[in-house]
Amino acid sequence: MNKVILLGRLTAKPELRYTSSNTAFLRFTVAVNRNFTSADGKREADFINVIAWRKQAETISKYFDKGNLIAIEGRLQTGSYDDKDGNKRYTTDVALDNFEFVESKNARAQSSDDSYNEPSPYDYQDSVSVENDPFAEYGDSVSIDDNFLD
Known about the structure:
The chain is 11% helix and 41% strand. The protein has two helices and six strands; from the N terminus they run ββββαββα.
């Protein structure tokens, strides 16, 4: 099985291109934070290359910008080519199968600056419907404790 799932931020504005047969494609890089910090307390990230084709490439180039959060599902793909000096170069990319908008339109607009901060849980408030609140009958607050997992 070859499956990759990523949640990260675009490192640059994606630029749509076309093959000689007029097929849309897009290469972009996603910065994905690691689950731990380095010895000096800084959070590190991996920069992962992604390639998208056709309609998905067109949609991503239209609606995403540098710094926007994106969820990606795809497969790992390797390849090689000879550079201009005749040296063999190897590539590893995630070939995109599906993607999802993770932030609201307003949050995407705000995050398209140069920062790569982790999103706040409050960034997603506009996606929660008060009318469908499953905890409404329990009062003003609900305490969730995940110590039961230990």
